[in-house]
Amino acid sequence: MKLRFSRKTLGIPYAVFLVCFVIIPMLVIVFYAFTDDEMHFSFVNFGKFFSDPTKLSTIVYSLVIALLTTAVTLVIAYPVAYILARSKMQKKYILLLLFVTPMWINFVLRVNALREILAWAGMLGEANYFNTILGMVYDFLPFMILPLYTTLSKIDGSLYEASADLGGNSFTTFTRVTVPLSMPGVLSGMTMVFLPSMTNYVVSDMLGNSKVTIIGKFIETYFGTDWHMGSMIALILLVIVLASTLLTGGFQSEHNVRGTTV
Amino acid sequence: MIKKCLKAFYVGLILLLLYAPILLLAVYSFNEVDTLGPMGEFSLKHYAKLFGDPAILEMIGNTVVLALVAAALSTVLGTAGAIGMFYSKRRTRTLMNGVNQIPVINAEIVTALALAITFVAIGVGKSYFTLVVGHMVLCTPFVVLSVLPKLKQMDHSLYEAALDLGASPMKALFKVVLPEIVPGIISGFMLAVTLSLDDYIITSYCKPSTFSTISTYVYNATMKGNVHTAETLSSFWALTTVIFVIILIVVLAANLTGRKKQENKGVNA
User: Fold this and answer.
1) Could you list the residue ranges that cross the membrane (chain A) (predicted)?
2) The pTM is what?
3) Is the CB of residue B78 less than 8 Å from the CB of residue B147?
């Protein structure tokens, strides 16, 4: 049989790659999550997880840390994005660029820099939860600024004038024009900060002195000992990730801060 | 006027806080002391240590080579994949698009755990191969996502015209389709490089134990600091500074030259 070249066939290697290294590994996780040590189908991990208060409280702590990080990041980032978006400065993109440039420095080195400062200030090991949240805010701030800036700068300036003409003061204009129109950016930024805050355990390890266990770390601790429980927690995390992605209207790749390459 | 000053002050303050840790380390990297605190004499000893330590040089080399290898492979696989997907039947396209999103949305730890367990379960020991595969899983979906929009934008009658004028499908692909999507391919490649350079979690799950990248080396040095002294840690000051300066030059140069046309459009290329 002569294989005729067509553009479609170009997709085959990637399709095979996706099956081997994305779909099959996910199925393997599902398999381990729902089997016991004898590899029989069972809900034992599911039951063990939801009946163990320490496991549940770890998840709750992790969610609280992620929510606090997201809230603080939003509060800091919104004014920055708003000021930059409304600024009439000529070369304001350079400023914006300065806000995202740290993202390209290796993130472990960035966390290490903060760790050195915290150690110097005598805070390392003293305020583990505070340090963890501080580190995450520091690390993920550009994730929030960029989508906010993108949506805020798209708002038509005449809407502000219209609001003023109709008698709105700057406060009502902000709450009734700016905030509603920037919601896509807010949601996108929140997802992009919330998800790594639950899983990126490098920050919590290095700054929380390994005393803070977020879900990502929790999975890691089971990797060497109990694949079944590890896989179950990974699945639960996956459910949380999917839920928050759906809740916020999906991941928008145009807002991905890494998409800002040259 | 006061309002304007306040705004400038706020933006400046956040920017300062964002850069403070790195700038502080940069200042100390030119000093003889090994821990932050009272300064001593000017010294380049941290740089001498950085560039004189074979282990550190090796892990820097590892990081760069891995990023280039993984990004190149991801770019080829992802570009071909995107073209294949784009011209496939709708169902195939939707399906591949959906699977392509999995590693993008998924937490890295879940991707890493799934890969690592699968490798162990089928008896494949961790090697450079598994590490490259891990990085390709991380990077390829982003290449696909940056190539697909360019395919959507291009004029498809050009390809038909090439065929009508006697070009083979292969030739038409290389002479007509590829040149149109080059910007997407380049940004996909750059994205892949930065993702790979920055990665810690997938690397730590897929790498052979003797292999280190900047991320795993620095993490291990700070967390399991028993074999490492303050001197190793302070050579990271020099490393941070060197990387910071390189990034600053690259980012500013690239954006200042290629930007003239589209001022005021934000950094979304």
Assistant:
1) 12-34, 59-81, 93-109, 129-152, 173-195, 227-248
2) 0.88
3) yes
